[in-house]
Automatic annotation (TrEMBL):
It is an enzyme of class 5 (isomerase). Catalyzes the conversion of N5-carboxyaminoimidazole ribonucleotide (N5-CAIR) to 4-carboxy-5-aminoimidazole ribonucleotide (CAIR). Belongs to the AIR carboxylase family. Class I subfamily. Substrate binds at S28, D31, R58. GO terms for molecular function: 5-(carboxyamino)imidazole ribonucleotide mutase activity. This is N5-carboxyaminoimidazole ribonucleotide mutase. NCBIfam families: purE. Residues 20-170 form the PurE domain. Keywords: Isomerase, Purine biosynthesis.
Length: 185
């Protein structure tokens, strides 16, 4: 279900069955550790995606091409992760009308992630970036799936089952605590 976007792809008509619906992009390979959580959850949900590097600073022409061709290629949502000043999500949002979900990353060049968070939250009117928590790639995948589920009953069902599994996990933990199985080792 995952694919990697080639260096240059501007196909007009994507293949209908395996077309990625979500693009996962990040500014550098070091972001992959965080962003792989989004890919894993989308895979579990059965949502097709592509994952690649698009650097706002080192490959600006690739950024423009990626964002401007995203809809034509079949994408419906873009998840963009970035650390430091994190220009990637906002710049992508400026070149597409698709929803962009920003994932601020607490990178080595970051000020404890605060710079990344603010660069995504403080977008000008008309160019929004939906922003999740610091290193919150999993929630970005859930949000992207919720957007897709607005018109996809199968995904709506998948999300219901996912929420139920979260509740069940908490209830199992509560039962373990009642039985004295709590250990803080």
């Amino acid at each position: 279900m995952s694919t990697t976007l080639p260096a240059s792809s501007a196909a007009d008509t994507p293949a209908p069955n395996d077309t990625p619906l979500v693009g996962i992009i990040m500014g550098s390979q070091s972001d992959l550790k965080t962003m792989s959580a989004a890919a894993e959850l989308l895979r579990q949900f059965g949502v097709t995606y592509e994952i690649t590097l698009v650097s706002a600073h080192r490959t600006p022409h690739r950024l423009v091409e990626y964002a401007e061709t995203a809809r034509k290629r079949g994408l419906r949502v873009i998840i963009a992760g970035g650390g430091g000043a994190a220009h990637l999500p906002g710049m992508v949002a400026s070149f597409t009308t698709l929803p962009v979900i920003g994932v601020p990353i607490n990178s080595v060049t970051s000020i404890h992630g605060l710079d990344s968070i603010l660069s995504m939250l403080q977008m000008p009117a008309g160019v929004p970036v939906a922003t999740v928590a610091l290193d919150g790639a999993a929630n970005a995948a859930v949000l992207a799936t919720q957007m897709l589920a607005l018109t996809n009953a199968r995904l709506a069902d998948v999300l219901e089952k996912y929420r139920t599994s979260l509740k069940d996990k908490v209830m199992r933990t509560i039962e373990e605590l009642r039985k004295g199985g709590f250990s803080d080792d």
